[in-house]
Amino acid sequence: MGSDAEKSILKKLDYLSVVSKVQSELESHLGFEDKVLAEFITEMGRDSEKVDDFDSKLKESGAEMPDYFVRTLFTIIHAILPPKSKSGEEGNGGDGNGKDSKYGALGIKDGKERVRELEVEIEREAEEKRRAEELAKGRDRDRDRDDRDRYDDYREGRRDRHRERYESRSKGRHRDRHGRDRREEEEEEDDREERREERGRANGRYQSNEPELLKVYAGRVTRVMDSGCFVQLSDFKGKEGLVHISMIANRRVANAKDFVKRDQEVFVKVVSMTGQKMSLSMRDVDQETGRDLLPMTKSTEDESLRMNPQSSSNGPTYRTGLSGIKIAEEDDSVPSRRPLKRMSSPEKWEAKQLIASGVMDVRDYPMYDDDGDGMLYQEEGAEEELEIELNEDEPAFLQGQSRYSIDMSPVKIFKNPEGSLSRAAALQSALIKERREVREQQQRTMLDSIPKDLNRPWEDPMPETGERHLAQELRGVGLSAYDVPEWKKDAYGKALTFGQRSKLSIQEQRQSLPIYKLKKELIQAVHDNQVLVVIGETGSGKTTQVTQYLAEAGYTTKGKIGCTQPRRVAAMSVAKRVAEEFGCRLGEEVGYAIRFEDCTGPDTVIKYMTDGMLLREILVDESLSQYSVVMLDEAHERTIHTDVLFGLLKQLVNRRPELRLIVTSATLDAEKFSGYFFNCNIFTIPGRTFPVEILYTKEPESDYLDASLITVLQIHLTEPEGDILLFLTGQEEIDHACQSLYERMKGLGSNVPELIILPVYSALPASLTIDGIFYVIDPGFAKQNVYNPKQGLDSLVITPISQASAKQRAGRAGRTGPGKCYRLYTESAYRNEMSPTTVPEIQRINLGMTTLQMKAMGINDLLSFDFMDPPSPQALISAMEQLYSLGALDDEGLLTKLGRKMAEFPLEPPLSKMLLLAQADQKRAKFFQPEGDHLTLLAVYEAWKAKNFSGPWCFENFVQSRSLRRAQDVRKQLLTIMDRYKLDVVSAGKNFTKIRKAITAGFFFHASRKDPQEGYRTLVENQPVYIHPSSALFQRQPDWVIYNELVMTTKEYMREVTAIDPKWLVELAPRFFKVSDPTKMSKRKRQERIEPLYDRYHEPNSWRLSKRRA
């Protein structure tokens, strides 16, 4: 009875909460609040099953409300209160399944059959495409053979006619005025014609009377200008095209006359055809052999457009893309000219007056359309202002559960947001930003002080003393030595070596590890237990030795031994070390696999990989049939992929009794792991630990970085000899600390003992072991990846560490002998402001990629999935809403064909969608593109590619060669995945519209519109944002943009910005955006304020009636 009474009280509280919310909505939208009316509307909403029913009931009662407001009230009511059952009772079934009724989208029944059907359909499409390509090649070969037969018949007929002509003229041969036989003249002409025909037949060009797009032809240069040259095609009479100066060679050409001459024989490729005009390219063709260096496929739409150019006049044609969205083909037919800036009304009036008066010729005006009908060229749609708003229609599976009905609470990463640790983290973030700005300002000042003309001292016959030397030194600015700080130069100059030198052999080093003494017991424990939890301190040897022990015990005869690592660097370095101990080359018996890099072979039996790579292998082979043992190393770090692997492998061990699962951890979470995995046994490896003295500060430290440096010097000058380990949050802090320590030590003079500074850019608590450490300094902070729903992005935030991490850091001081740990926070902060354990990653980052992968595995019931620490239902709902907007889920919440292809790419869902919708390898852009930063980055990559991936070029242009090489590796793997699905990789050329549309298809969530007052406002959250000063669009300020990320400094700045057309949002994301009703005032216009023009003679609000004097 007590429980029934409690449930009744809770229901009443929910009902009162809904009435209060409805009351506040009435006040904010209609300007009045009435509790009785709110209760009446609430009951009416509970009795309605659909929004339309609710709207009709309101209208019957005389309440005329806007559609969006009715929908808002309906979602608020149904999100908290269950609908009334037909019997009038509030059902008993709702009690037992209340969670499912509230989040129905997360309780969809698992269905692997649909996933298999999608995979079969995708494979069938790829096979049909491959057959079609082979059939097309066969038709081309048959056509070539028919052409050869016709050509042979043609030549035979010419010989017969020539023989008849020769016989008829043999009787009366006469010579011309040059004394040459006319018959010999005709024979030479015939031979020349035959040679031309032979050359055309060899190149496969006797198929049409018109040049074909993307084909290579021989030609002759007829005219040369500074900006290019005209080439007449040899195989077509009267066909001539322009080769622009940028299309002559792969390197920069200052003047076309330096590369081509009149009457020069060249090979050209037809790049584009508009009416009678042709654009040709020489840079894509080998001028010696005529081979196409950049072969590109041509779609049937392009062919039909070329054969019937007038077909586009009836309107744009459409084709259906991967997402089911109609894509207009008009982009292919329009010239690749960039849209011009919109003209204001005064500018148009001025232009018309100048042209009408005869002062300016219409052809001299920059807006004149030379290719069109001679009228002033204007950007299409410039006159029409398109009003775009969010599409608030919810799909069936998300009714009452989406962002319009449930407020997403921010992720809580601070236990006490008002505590001393939170204030110190905020202050340090501000100091990091300030130091960065000072450093950038110093670099700009130094570069501005460099003379612009470095050749003048060498040309001057009598330069000033030292002037040539200065110029010689400044020529090296921009090379690698420029960025090396002073402390690092000094350390490297002393031939600093990294790593600990050991005189022991590899075998003796292995035997010195603590795990060696327990080798037999460990192998027996793995043999007796299907799942085993191994606990051991860092440095005990569990990562490198367990896999080798199991290989020696014969587990590799049944399959591979796989070991996951939470980081890329750890997987690579551990695999390299194990390969040395195993006695093989890396990539043979021992290998590793990380994202965009696979260093394994057919003989690999021990495979180290990141946890994300094992998750992708399960996506392909759900039984992991290639593996006999799977080891989840560093499981205590609880990355998002590790948590998903826990649930998947827990199901897998029930299906595969022969599979062995080992979970290793360096912390004392053994009981939690054991309880999760069927109360399995725990194998403990005793470590080499000594007592550690813990020291706290008496008062909170505001600047923990400065306090850390003071503590380092204090230990170095007053404590006994021993290594010091300082934990910082990132590379910027580490570099600043090293530089400060170097300068302070230099200021103390030569009498102070030397302090060797060693920066370690890694997550030390889990991945590395360093012996000889007696002192640990723990500021109590780390950087965590946290999802920000406002920005829609994951960001690194400085946060306090957990109590478990603090214990692990302190344990570092007791590996070699008794040590000390200096905690730069109070004991009260340790107990009250630090959580016991770190918040798992799955509860604090975006779950879009994880949800997509689980859907691709057939896991739809996310509520019932056995997470060790389940994420919040709101986070899962938000992820599914994003996937639905991208087209990865259908109206029932099930995976689509596009979604299955997106899951195959190791990218975030927006990037996968952008790549699949584009299917293009964009080429030949120029630096600093006016369309935006994405194309500017593309221009940098293409310029690097044109320089044969040169390292010195990167130094000269202040570009990181490592980032470009990484982009190159990523591109190779993405091309491999696209080739698997037979997706065309076709160049978009200079059609920047296609490229920008592809970006819009993936990042439409990040659309922003120019604000009339200042900056921009995002369409989703309506928050004020600004273009970053480093952006290519900073001076242009287009009306509509899409950004890649938001950076919070003094303002919310948009980074990697690209200008877009607002029509694309509705075209490419119809589930997310819609065109506003022209008969109603949009939400954006309702929020705008009417501001009068500036009047220096009156006050700003003097126009208001309330401000006027009587």
Features:
single chain; 1110 residues; alpha/beta; Rossmann fold; 8-stranded mixed sheet; 5-stranded mixed beta barrel; 37 helices; 41% helix; globular; EC 3.6.4.13; RNA helicase; S1_DHX8_helicase; ATP binding
Query: How many angstroms does the end-to-end distance come to?
Result: 70 Å
pLDDT averaged over residues? 75
Structural class: alpha/beta
Tally the helices: what do you get?
Answer: 37
How would a textbook summarize the main sheet?
8 strands, mixed
Low-pLDDT segments, ≥5 res? 85-101, 169-180, 201-207, 299-338, 371-383, 475-482, 919-931
Question: Helical amount among residues, as a percent range?
Answer: 40-55%
Q: What's the alpha carbon Rg, rounded to whole Å?
A: 36 Å
Shape: globular
Counted beta strands: 28
Strand order of the largest sheet: 12-11-13-10-14-15-9-16
Strand content: 5-15%
Topology diagram in text:
Layout: H1 2-30, H2 35-47, H3 51-60, H4 67-80, H5 93-96, H6 98-102, H7 112-169, H8 182-202, E1 216-225, E2 228-233, E3 240-244, E4 265-274, E5 277-281, H9 300-307, E6 318-320, E7 326-328, H10 330-333, H11 345-357, E8 388-390, H12 420-448, H13 456-459, H14 467-474, H15 486-493, H16 506-511, H17 519-528, E9 531-536, H18 542-552, E10 560-565, H19 568-582, E11 590-594, E12 597-599, E13 606-610, H20 611-620, E14 627-632, H21 640-655, E15 660-665, H22 670-676, E16 681-685, E17 692-696, H23 704-718, E18 723-726, H24 731-747, H25 764-767, E19 773-778, E20 781-788, E21 793-800, H26 803-811, E22 819-823, H27 827-832, H28 848-856, H29 873-886, H30 897-904, H31 909-918, H32 933-946, H33 951-956, H34 961-980, H35 992-1003, E23 1007-1010, E24 1016-1018, E25 1024-1027, E26 1040-1048, E27 1052-1059, H36 1062-1068, E28 1073-1075, H37 1083-1087
Parallel strand pairs: 3-5, 9-15, 9-16, 10-13, 10-14, 11-13, 14-15, 17-22, 18-19, 19-22, 25-27
Antiparallel strand pairs: 1-2, 1-4, 2-3, 4-5, 6-7, 8-28, 11-12, 20-21, 23-24, 23-26, 24-25, 26-27
Helix pairs in contact: 1-2, 1-4, 18-19, 20-21, 23-24, 28-29, 28-30, 30-31, 31-35
